[in-house]
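Issue: copy button drops trailing tokens. Both records pasted manually instead:
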Amino acid sequence: MYRNGKVWANLPFGSIQLEPWLIFENKTQFHEVFRDFCVQEGFAVSVDYADNYRYTARCLISDCNWRIHAAVLVDKVSWAIKKLEGEHRTCGRLEENPMVYSAWLCRQLRQDLEANPETPVESLQRMCLERFKIQVKLRLFYKVKCLAREQIHGGFVESYAILPKYAEMIKATNPGSYALITWTDNGVNGERVLEWLQTHYRDDGAHLSGYYKGIMLTAVGIDGNNEIFVIAYGLVDTESIKSWSYFFRNLRHLFAQNGCQKEYWTFISDRMRGVEPALFEVFPRATRRVCCQHLYSNCKTAGWSGTEFHKLFWIAANAYNEYVYDKAMSKIKKYDAAAFEYMTNIEEQWTRHKFDRVVCCDHNTTNFVESFNSFTKDNRDMPVFTLLEGIN
């Protein structure tokens, strides 16, 4: 049909050559190849006319006589270059090319970002300079990374839309699991709880850094081998009494659903907002421990620090008997009476000699759940479906 035409052969960047009657599959392919050619040759164009049937452009430099004209063919799908005139004799190579924009950079750098999503923007800038001989502003690469993440892992909106089906799939493929999606006017709360019970576990919240933000609430347990196991996790809009109550109510419902009516649970957490009132509303007979690492940070904020206080604090926190505890606290009182008063007025359990001996766990820090939070860090800026699958 086009005896004088030549079909585009998908040449790599750096070896692209345009000529009259070069035929493309469709309009999109023509525009992609043409933009690649402009960047490769280091020039930009001024568009004279563009619609769904034809495209005419000339070199951006007014003294240059280079011009291109392309149009759709009779099949109403394929496109071809009809005219290609002039040469770039008077225009030099553009280092900052206006033909370069975020979508083009995403297409060129997608494989690199898929292999290493955490590639620094400075490295991406150097890649563009070495591969394409162009200078690109750093701020553009932040958008490029977001676009690439969406293309690789899906969009945030689409990810939230499939959560109800995902919850049903969890219940169908993991018998005994519990999953619940609750939609509100302000966003979505999603929770999945695995069938695994233990009388001591730690609750915590971690911030999501994706498009919609939010908080991931988790309950991480310690088993008989002193190893961690994720009992429950949920996604909520904010960390508050309401959201923690929602989380604990569903956790208690799961226990009852599996025939566990135990009342005496032990929780350990920092003094985060909303945990204590929500916890005792749902588990009124629970025992609460406070993380000593966070407690020591509070002491430092209050001005009680230094090598001597640090040593005495941890002796008191790790004391397995009252004698060692009292001896350390008496020294703390001599060091600073205000620090002694603050530590003796802590209502939660924090020193080991006060722990219930029935609970075979002597953890007084939340390091084990911080390990879990560290594990999920790379996924917390991803769409929610990718986040949940990463945890799973």
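Record 2 (pasted manually too):
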Amino acid sequence: MVATNPLRDDKLHYHHLTSNGRKVLKEITARTSETGVMEFHGVDAREYEVLQHVLEEMGRIKPRLTYDYSKHLLFVDIPSPLHEAPFINIRDSLACTIEHLPYDHDVICPAINMNLPLEIEDILATLHISITLTKAERPITELLVPLIGECICSETKTKSHIMDKMKKTIDAHPEINMVILGIVHEAQAYECPKIGSVASKTLLKSPTPIPRSKFITKSFPPCESINIADHNWCHLSLVEFFVWVKQDGDTQIDLDQDDNDHMARGVLYPEVRMDAVTKMFQQGLERIRDTFVDFTKHISTIVDVTSLEEAEVVFPISWKDAFIAADVSVDATAYARYKHWHENQINPTKRTWDLSYSPSDSESESSVSDDAKLQEGTSLSCGRPRRKRRPASQPPPR
């Protein structure tokens, strides 16, 4: 008989959740990106681990999680296509910049990461975008983070949480040379259609969501509401970017500084005004190149870094392409919201397992026994379970 791997058993993970954990899971799976950041109290470290596994295995949503081990506090951010789109072009352009730098691939290993979990003291934070730098050979004993970035909605609570997370990341990694913040504004906050509304009466006639091509049948101009069946599904009004770069003499980046030497603001949507941001990107990437130089010297005293020191930094961004990506993401977000709403109305139990499930006595005893075994086999470090660390990045192909 083949033993079951508990890490691959969805229901085993689910049954390890307490009633509070199940409520958290139900809340997460019931919400979409219009919610902003959700905050859950009283989630212990082990339950956080189980929630992580359950959400990964469900696969229908991919939230960014931030967990505070000391406060037992879980923050959940469910990004929409609106928030993902602006960083796609930036990621690709950063990859091109790094690819053209003549660094020694046998000595250092830079990587561009999307949704990287990063441990910061008692917090496990998921960064939207980051550049990490390690040596090219194991064991990996140092991790530098020259760049971090987030793209968020304009909701006040969300912005406050993200700014706090970035400040704590900077405190833990003062070597950060560049910080990017994108803020997405919607003219109308999205709400699901109400029972009895035109949208509810017309769009719930089909037992399954209609295809996107039949849901959005016309072209909507920029900054106009995607209004279908007398309901607003998405109304993007503004996408702005803020970029901070560490200057000579600075110990670390201060996100409260807004002078022109340290911070630049630009508008990507509804019209492109990104010249100041482009210049700040150039400055930041030149400093990241210098970090590559310093880290190479730190690892090896015999490697010639002259060509890297003198290398021109090229950031081949097309903000017009980024604008188009943001505009196209409006339709994608509108359809995703419709589909999520439709599925929850027609078949609400589809989003997760039966949340009213109550295990039998034998199952409860088995679960308690499993919990005890897991706890016995768990060593503690700094008041939390010691987890197997994931590598921060994979070496680039040679």
